[in-house]
Amino acid sequence: MQEIKAFIHSLQLQAHPEGGFYREMYRSPTMVQAINTPNEKSAYTSIYYLLSGHDFSSWHRIKSDETWYFHYGCDVLIYFFDAENGLQRIQLGLIGKKFQATIPANTWFAAKPLDAASFCLVSCIVAPGFEFSDFEMGKRQELLVEYGQTQENKDIITSLTRN
């Protein structure tokens, strides 16, 4: 617990609406025209993101690609629904021996640390850049209707939503 608090303090992280703690580290001054939007956006943004062992990143989606980079702590399991509505998993970290993964734009995804007694620290790069107006938090009942075809899907959706 002390190590988690030390990281939150030293990296100046704040609570994130989807769960965990974050801090924006960079917002590109280069502006790009994002597809299907009239507004220009930063070419990319990056954050530090920390999840404690008992916390999780709730089901959500954004309108840009998001790449996760593992830095420290226990492995993190990222769940997402693929183009055929199949539940997929990516394990980032030392045990999984995978250190980065990209979630395509408009994909529902969630994440949690694999060790409840630990935490994970990652960076997330979003391109075109992240805007909270492009962020959609998943609603449990809607996700269950769309993706709850199996008991496993129902259990994972329920365990990784807050509503």
Throw out a few tags for this protein:
single chain, 163 residues, alpha+beta, five-stranded antiparallel beta sheet, 3 helices, globular
Q: State the low-pLDDT regions, or none.
A: none
> What's the mean pLDDT score?
96
Residues in helix, %: 10-25%
The overall strand count is 13
Radius of gyration: 16 Å
State the end-to-end distance.
Answer: 27 Å
Strand fraction: 35-45%
SSE pattern = HEEEEEEEEEEEEEHH
User: What is the approximate shape?
Assistant: globular
Largest sheet: 6 strands, antiparallel
Overall description:
With 163 residues, this protein is α+β, with helices and mostly antiparallel strands. Helix content is 16%, strand content 44%. It contains three helices and 13 strands; from the N terminus they run H-E-E-E-E-E-E-E-E-E-E-E-E-E-H-H. The protein has helices at 2-10, 140-147, 151-159; strands at residues 14-15, 21-27, 31-33, 40-42, 45-52, 57-62, 65-73, 76-81, 87-92, 100-103, 109-113, 119-127, 135-137. Strand 3 (31-33) and strand 4 form a beta hairpin. Helix 2 packs antiparallel against helix 3. It is globular.
